[in-house]
Amino acid sequence: MAFLRSSPPTVDFTAGHKAGQPVDLTVQTVGSIGFGPHPSWVSYLTRTPSGTWVPTTLWNLPAHTRVNMTILQYDSGSSLRNQFLGQVSGTAGGVMYLNGAPVSLVDSNSGNGVGHTFTVPSLGIDVPLVAISSNAKNPCSAAPCTPNFDHNTVTFSFTTPGPGEYPWQCFVPCGLGFLYGNGGPMQTIGFMGGFLKVVA
Ligand SMILES: [Cu+2]
Q1: Distance 185 CA to ligand 1 centre (A)
Q2: N or C: which end of the chain has fewer CB within 10 A?
Q3: What is the dihedral angle through the alpha carbons of 169, 55, 80, 164, rounded to the nearest 10 degrees?
Q4: In 64-169, beta strands by DSSP E
Q5: 162 CA distance to ligand 1 middle (Å)
Q6: Facing residues of 43 across strands?
């Protein structure tokens, strides 16, 4: 019951924010978190403004503000079930940068496939996170992962809307061992989904 009642912390990106200034938001995706109540679960983690990695997917963000997002993607992947999710959408310029190169569409049936997506349905944001090879020489096995492990760096920007709570989630059924991959971490806040808590 303690677990059921508990909620992951919210990382605050509004403290000290000056109007008109962008917010830098860095997260990582890992194939297994390696600690806590579900060490084998796939997860996102968030880097706080002071540089600490926290297993959470909840963020306070200022309204009408550009968010410069970096996603460090340490997981392997597969083909998307719905190819529509391979289209980058809702980001500045309609692009993401994959290890520095602009990308607007990912064909997950070629290459390493897609590990996870960062998707905010109500804002039309979708970013497919290209996977590392399933034969990667130096995969990370427990979070927080450090950049010396194999990963892809995905960067993009978007602008927050007015105040409200906007759910986001991964749309890859990445909950291995659960029915159709959609249970466990896919249904648990702090792992493969969370909220943008946009405040005025
Ligand atoms: Cu996922």
Answers
A1: 8
A2: N
A3: 10
A4: 66-73, 96-98, 101-103, 114-120, 125-130, 152-159, 164-169
A5: 27
A6: 30
Residue 101 alpha carbon to ligand 1 centre in Å = 23
Ion ligand 1: residue ranges with CB closer than 5 A: 116, 170, 172, 174, 192
**Rounded Cα distance, 105 and 88, in Å:** 6
pLDDT tens track for 159-200: 999 999 999 999 999 999 999 999 999 999 999 999 999 999
- Paired with 45 in beta bridges are 28
Contact yes or no for 181/80 (Cβ under 8 A): no
Q: Pull the structure tokens for residue 198.
A: 């946009």
For the entire predicted model, the pTM comes to 0.96
Distance 37 CA to ligand 1 centre (A): 18
How many A from CA of 16 to the centre of ligand 1?
32
- Diameter of the chain measured on Cα atoms: 46
Given the structure tokens 């109500």, which residue do they identify? Answer: 122
- In three-state secondary structure terms, 92 is helix
Strand 193-199 versus strand 58-62 pairing type = parallel
Tens-place pLDDT, residues 118-156: 999 999 999 999 999 999 999 999 999 999 999 999 999
Instruction: For residue 164, report the distance from its CA to the centre of ligand 1, in Å.
Output: 24
Q: How far is the CA of 192 from the centre of ligand 1 (A)?
A: 5
